Structures are given as C-alpha cells and as structure tokens.
Amino acid sequence: MWDDFLSSHKSNKGRKMKSLKIILLLLITVFFISCTIKYLPFKEKGIIISEGYGIIKNDDFIFAAANEYWVKEPQNLTNYFTTFHISISNKTKEKMKITPMDITLLDEDENQFDTVDLEFIEKMLLPKQLEYLVIKNIEDDSDIFRSLMEDQKNILEEWREAQRNLITYSFRFGETLPGAKKSGFIFFPKISSSNYSCQIIFRGISIQFTRGDKKKEKTE
User: Fold this and answer.
1) Predicted model pTM
2) What are the residue ranges in the chain where pLDDT is below 70?
3) Are the CB atoms for 100 and 88 separated by under 8 Å?
C-alpha cells in the first residue's frame, strides 16, 4: 500500500514537472520569436505574395516559400539553422523529382548556402547525455545500461519527440506524383543577422526576401 502511495506520488509529481516544463517552453518560444529576425517575401514581377509566402507559378509547378520559425523540439535547432517552410505542387502528368540541389539560399552578398540533411541535424543536435548510449548500442540490456537509461529517461523521450518532429514536419526530397503536393521545413546554415535581405532560388527562379524589422540603411 505504501509502495502504491509512493508510486502515485512520484507519478503526479512527474506530470506536474512535465506541465511546468511545457509552460516554460512556450514562454521561451514566445520570447524567442519576438527577438528573432524574420525575412518577408518581396513583391516583384512573376512573384505572388500570399500569407507570408513568396509564390512562383508556371505550367510545371507551384513553388511557395516562407521564412517560418521552427518552434518544436529540438528547440535549439534555430541556433544553428535558418529555416524556411516550402510547398511544391507538381502540375505535370509525370512524376517530378526534387533534389536538395534544386533549392538554394543566397545572402545579400550572394554567398550560397545549400540545404542541410536531417541525418546531419540529428547527429549535431543529439544531446550529449545520449551520445554514450548511442555509441555503445541502444539495445544493450546490461544493468549499467538500464541504470543509465533510467537516469536519462526524460532526455531520451524529448529526443525521440524531436526525431518524430523532424521526420514529420521536414520537407522530404524525392519524387512527387502527378498532381500531388509536398510541404515541409528545409534547413540552411544560419545566415548572419546583419543581412538585410536574402533569396531562395528554386530551379533558377529567385524569390527575394527582406527583413521585416527594419529598413535598409542608405549608403552615400
């Protein structure tokens, strides 16, 4: 009976701590968004602007891109990457293959940044506490492993959630069926906050973006 009471107490305490952590995470996210630079699409010939997206339309595809924040786990992702949310619709009657090389980011000095693949992101952002477990084989059932896993249980759960988010909400390169659409986040190495503008290029067509928080300083 006493064991049941302790188990229930620990369970309730765990739920309260998790709820508190979620609230703190939301507050940090709101603060982060308020301080983060956002680039807005610039209207020019051939570019449609709608709900923060710059859109390219032609006979073969519709491409839309917006500088959207990544607000899910892993939260530290935006410390290292510039994120865009994109959508690509295949308007042809054939399969359309989309590769990472089809999409490029240029900063205002025309420095080129290529998309970063999910495998690299996962390895880079893997919590230090879990590196030993991954290296030593996560399926190990030794007493030492079980003890370590118990200590790092919450960290492991958060990391699994982060992996699920990356898989679910990231753009998946590859073939797009006729009439189908793919959407998701793409990631570039973080560009300097000093950039007033940048551009996304998809198959040779550019969408210009400018900072929404300030005007470009005039040079004499």
Assistant:
1) 0.75
2) 1-36, 128-151, 214-220
3) no
